[in-house]
Amino acid sequence: MVDLTQHMHKGVTGVKSSAILNFTHYCGQYPDIVKFTVGEPDFNTPDHIKTAAIKGIVDNHSHYAPSNGTPGLREAAAAFLERRYGQHYEPSEIIATNGATEAIYTVMSAILNPGDVMAMPTPLFPLYIADASLEGAEVVQIDTSATDFKLTPAALQKVVDEYGDRLRVLVMNYPTNPTGVMYSQEELDALADVVRDRPTFVLCDEIYSELNYDQAHASMEKSLHDQVILLNGVSKSWAMTGYRIGIMAAPQAITDQLAKVHQFITTTEPWPMQDAAEEAFRNGDADAREMKAAFKERRDYLYQQLTEIGFKVIKPQGAFYIWAQIPAGLDQDDAKFVYALADQAHVGVCAGSWFAKGGHSWLRFSYATALDEIKEGVKRIRKFVEENRNDAN
């Protein structure tokens, strides 16, 4: 019998399945497990947004929507970006996508050729690596663990010097998953200067833009509009992960090319879900602020508790993740640590090494879960650390 898997696309056979999703599945064997794993808000979608989706169904929005998105959604998204961040895009420069996930794949497919380079500061969510690898691109991971988990102009310049015009895509995600780090506008301006007027696209993934706690949201789009492809969406800020609506914005000539790939990947997004996203962008500013206040309370509690237990914690400036280093006196193998924590304490946490270079001995805690659950999880973690530290000694 012929093993047909040996004749599949080399990019597919070379990509590993998601360690995060595999571990989440593993944790499912423990019914009482406290999950700090998946970045999914525990809130319900606000009622006025649900009503908009229901109205879309009642109004028979059951046919194909325009491939790039309904006019109402694209207009609402453009107004949202302008109102909230001073980012100016015409509605025609915006594409509605199947979440930010599809947008990332569309960008990589539309831009990268085999041998091109995609660079990204790490630790970072690993999806970008898989998508670039599928296109036969070379992935350059820029370890930021020695620079407070921020990309510096010097580190970026080193990549430019080494790879030159092969550097086709630079990924910037902020607030950053998994560290919660945010950049100032001055920092982003300095990074933009390194790649300005080069044949390099900058993919700015700003899906957590509404969840900045300690400063106004800054964006590389303001520094380098003509080279930026901007991603945003409704999943994180309005608890709409299941609605699967993201937005992708770029100068018109770039959007026109991205639209070719987008239409073949997904054709269009469900019309009632676009109606809901339109309502979120038009009338949901207060919803996002309320959720952010709750996330900030959880952040402060978890940061304090993990610090007391002995973790070295990077206090997040945005998103809903805490990045913490395994306490001294314990096995620093983060993958072994999270499986032991799941088995012994029934607590699910992501291993830092799953987020590429710079993540070894670190852990990612998602606090997109109820405060009572967080408190129970902390109690179990404290007990686990105390018992295993004593065993190690």
What profile does the largest beta sheet have?
7 strands, mixed
How many domains comprise the coordinates?
A: 2
Tell me what the CATH architecture of the largest domain is.
Answer: 3-Layer(aba) Sandwich
How large a portion of the residues is in β-strands, by DSSP E?
5-15%
- The average pLDDT is 96
Strand ordering within the main sheet = 2-8-7-6-5-3-4
Gross morphology is: globular
Task: Indicate the CATH topology of the largest domain.
Answer: Aspartate Aminotransferase, domain 2
Strand and helix order: HHEHHEHEHEHEHEEEHHHEEHEEEH
Give the low-confidence spans.
none
* Name of the CATH first level of the largest domain: Alpha Beta
The number of strands is 13
The level of helicity is 40-55%
- Helix run count: 13
Radius of gyration, whole Å: 21 Å
Protein name: Aminotransferase
GO molecular function, one term: pyridoxal phosphate binding
InterPro entries: Aminotransferase_I/II_large (IPR004839), AspAT/PAT-like (IPR050596), NHTrfase_class1_PyrdxlP-BS (IPR004838), PyrdxlP-dep_Trfase (IPR015424), PyrdxlP-dep_Trfase_major (IPR015421), PyrdxlP-dep_Trfase_small (IPR015422)
Pfam family, one: Aminotran_1_2
Describe this structure as you would to a colleague.
- It is a single chain.
- This protein is an alpha/beta fold and 393 residues long.
- It has 2 domains: 4-44 and 289-392, Aspartate Aminotransferase, domain 1 (Alpha-Beta Complex); 47-286, Aspartate Aminotransferase, domain 2 (3-Layer(aba) Sandwich), CATH 3.40.640.10.
- Helix content is 44%, strand content 15%.
- The strands form 3 sheets. Strands 2-8-7-6-5-3-4 form a 7-stranded mixed sheet, with helices on both faces.
- β9 (312-314) and β10 form a beta hairpin.
- GO terms for molecular function: pyridoxal phosphate binding; transaminase activity.
- This is Aminotransferase.
- Belongs to the class-I pyridoxal-phosphate-dependent aminotransferase family.
- It comes from Lactobacillus porci.
